[in-house]
């Protein structure tokens, strides 16, 4: 940022990012819950606690292939003095008739088979002569080894997951294993992404004077999907007032949140701000555009559109600034709509590896690479920021947060870092 830009920032009255987010996000509510079959539930956020109706395992079972026996019958086994037991049957995972051991007898069992009554140990098959009618055991097992008791992993009545948790593959397995076929979840927010500007052209070509390739709508659709939203990229809308109004009205029918990019400034071509902030009958327009103490980006729009009052977030046209705006405002909005917790990304304190400067009066989010140290804690390497934020974000797994009063952070100092999860 140039000295002139610094002076312009100082001359404007900016809203702190914390105050802005607080006032904007308080207006959002989680989407209504719905009941989903388990096969459709992955990735959704639970609307209520899930309690196990049945235990897991559901019954006592063999954990390994071997011989189910009474420990008192095999505890004296040894290489020089093997214990000999009569094998009175075979049990597989599909066996269902109840059976019971008598002294000096055992059952040959497969892993997953229900335990016979009286059994309190399963002897590994490799510790025996693998006999069929009778078996010799050469090594004494520990009491309770080789088996699993009903409910020893998940007891009936235990809370499997709390409301606000995102359903993972492991949770799907736990729900199914304890007899759950439906769960109550929050809907995945339907997010519509619109890029605006007469200068925009579709991807597949290079930008040239008077034409700019639309990178933002593709990037924001990917960012929304990363959070778990159902992202719908509408594409490019020209700077046509009636066309923009009609498109927004049409998209409110299928959207829980609308993201626009571009047109947030005060120039002659900034149609989004002109249309959505227009006063009607002395009242402010449905979307307020605010100068926020944020770098890069500064201007953000937030409000509602249409009869259904669908929330809309208006982001800058610069790709790096649009993605930072998404992180600080749109992503938390999606998390709130989906009922997910926590709303904001996790953060850590990390030792800065290089000295960085930051514009006065603005809270900067600078791309960075964060790493864990062997002895504990984190280090963070700052990457390109400011007008080069997009190239920095390409390599980043974190965002260094530099406060409004920070003009320089020296190497070796400790800074806050938001962790970016790029696994989804």
Automatic annotation (TrEMBL):
Query: Which CDD domains is this protein grouped with?
Result: MoeA (cd00887)
A Pfam family of this chain: MoeA_N
The enzyme class is transferase
Q: Which UniProt keywords apply?
A: Magnesium, Metal-binding, Molybdenum, Molybdenum cofactor biosynthesis, Transferase
Q: In which pathway does it act?
A: Cofactor biosynthesis; molybdopterin biosynthesis
Required co-factor?
Mg(2+)
Q: Where is the MoaB/Mog domain?
A: 192-336
What reaction gets catalysed by this protein? Answer: adenylyl-molybdopterin + molybdate = Mo-molybdopterin + AMP + H(+)
Looking at the keywords, is Protein biosynthesis present? Answer: no
Q: Which SMART domains match?
A: MoCF_biosynth
Among PROSITE patterns, the record links this protein to: MOCF_BIOSYNTHESIS_1 (PS01078)
State the source organism's domain of life.
Bacteria
Its Enzyme Commission number(s) read: 2.10.1.1
Q: What does this protein do?
A: Catalyzes the insertion of molybdate into adenylated molybdopterin with the concomitant release of AMP.
Under PANTHER family, the record lists:
GEPHYRIN (PTHR10192:SF5), MOLYBDOPTERIN BIOSYNTHESIS PROTEIN (PTHR10192)
The similarity annotation says: Belongs to the MoeA family.
Instruction: Specify the protein name.
Output: Molybdopterin molybdenumtransferase
Which source organism?
Asanoa siamensis
